[in-house]
Specification:
Elements lengths: L1 H13 L2 H20 L7 H18 L4 H13 L3 H14 L4 H13 L3 H14 L7 H10 L4 H14 L4 H13 L3 H17 L2 H19 L1
Helix pairs in contact: 1-2, 3-4, 4-5, 5-6, 6-7, 6-8, 7-8, 8-9, 8-10, 10-11, 10-12, 11-12
Length: 223
C-alpha cells in the first residue's frame, strides 16, 4: 500500500506514469542501500575502478610496495580480471613467500582461470601457512571449483569449511548453493538454516552487511 501511495504521489507530481515509476525505483533503491542492503551496489564497479587508479598511481611511485600490489591484485580479482591479477600475485609470491593471503589470492585466481591443479596447491599452501586464513573461505573456493569435476573432493573441502564455523551468512548461502548443485538438497537446506541462525547472533552493525545473503538463504530454504 505504501508503494502505491508513493507511486500515486509521484504520478501527481510528474504527470507521467513512466517517470513516476523510474523515480519510485530510484527512491526504493536508495532506501534499500541505506537501511536494508538487499540490492547489490550498482556503483561498486565505478568505485573499484577509482580505487584501482589510485593504487596504480601510488605503485608508480613505489613499484616494490608489496601491500599496494596485493591491494591492486584484490581489486582486479573483484573486477574478475584474473589474468592481470595473477601477474601481480606471482610477483608477490617471490617477494613474500610466507604470506598466506598472497598464496590464497593466487590460488583463487588460478582456479578462476581453470588451472585447478596449481590453484588447489596454492590454496593448500596458504592453509599450511595459516589454517584459519580468511575464516575458512579457501575451503569454500576449493569446493566451488571442484563441484563439477570431482564431487567427492568438493564435499571433502566443504566439510572442512563447516569445521571452521564461519560467521559469514554469505559463505553458508554459497555452501547451500554448492550442496544443492550436487544433489544434496537436505544438507543444502541445513546450510541455509545455518546462515539464518548465524544472522540472529550477529550484532546490529554487522546485520546490514549480511542482510542480502540472509534474504536469499531464507528464500532458498522455503522454496
Amino acid at each position: 500500500m505504501a508503494k502505491l501511495f508513493i507511486f500515486g504521489l509521484l504520478f501527481w507530481l510528474f504527470g507521467n506514469p513512466f517517470v513516476a515509476l523510474i523515480v519510485l525505483m530510484i527512491v526504493l533503491y536508495f532506501l534499500d542501500r541505506r537501511f536494508i542492503g538487499i540490492f547489490p551496489n550498482v556503483f561498486k564497479p565505478f568505485q573499484l575502478s577509482r580505487r584501482l587508479r589510485r593504487v596504480r598511481q601510488e605503485l608508480s611511485l613505489s613499484p616494490h610496495h608489496s601491500s599496494l600490489k596485493l591491494e591492486a591484485a584484490r581489486i582486479l580479482v573483484e573486477k574478475r580480471r584474473y589474468a592481470e591479477a595473477i601477474v601481480l600475485l606471482d610477483e608477490l609470491i617471490s617477494l613474500v613467500s610466507d604470506s598466506a593471503e598472497v598464496w590464497f589470492e593466487a590460488g583463487r585466481c588460478r582456479l578462476k582461470l581453470g588451472d585447478l591443479i596449481v590453484g588447489e596447491s596454492q590454496i593448500l599452501k596458504a592453509l599450511h601457512l595459516n589454517p584459519r586464513v580468511r575464516y575458512g573461505e579457501p575451503y569454500l573456493r576449493l569446493g566451488e571449483a571442484f563441484a563439477d569435476v570431482d564431487q567427492n573432493k568438493a564435499l571433502k573441502y566443504l566439510r572442512q569449511f563447516q569445521d571452521i564455523h564461519s560467521s559469514s551468512c554469505e559463505a553458508y548461502y554459497r555452501l547451500g548453493l554448492l550442496l544443492e548443485k550436487m544433489g544434496q538438497k537436505d544438507q543444502a537446506k541445513q546450510a541455509y538454516g545455518e546462515a539464518m541462525t548465524i544472522y540472529q547472533s550477529l550484532p546490529k552493525y554487522k546485520r546490514k552487511q549480511e542482510r542480502r545473503w540472509i534474504w536469499l538463504a531464507r528464500r532458498k530454504k522455503l522454496g
